[in-house]
Design goal:
Layout (H helix, E strand, L loop, with lengths): L3 H4 L24 H31 L2
Length: 64
């Protein structure tokens, strides 16, 4: 293992990759392992948002 790369790390965060053109655009071919890793989290988030939106609409129309 090359320890030099770990000794010369920046001490402050950088936004270099966040400001590059194309940031956030999915690559043409994505890794299945990464997709499977985050799939449950995304589905859980989507379900929570959907449930809350349905609840807001339900409460809104029952109090009219």
């Amino acid at each position: 293992m090359d320890l030099n790369k770990w000794c010369n790390l920046n001490s402050e965060p950088r936004l270099k990759h966040l400001t590059e053109a194309g940031f956030g655009v999915p690559k043409e071919k994505q890794r299945v392992s990464v997709q499977e890793l985050v799939k449950a989290h995304i589905e859980s988030f989507d379900q929570a948002v959907t449930d809350r939106l349905c609840r807001v609409v339900e409460v809104r129309y029952t109090h009219m």
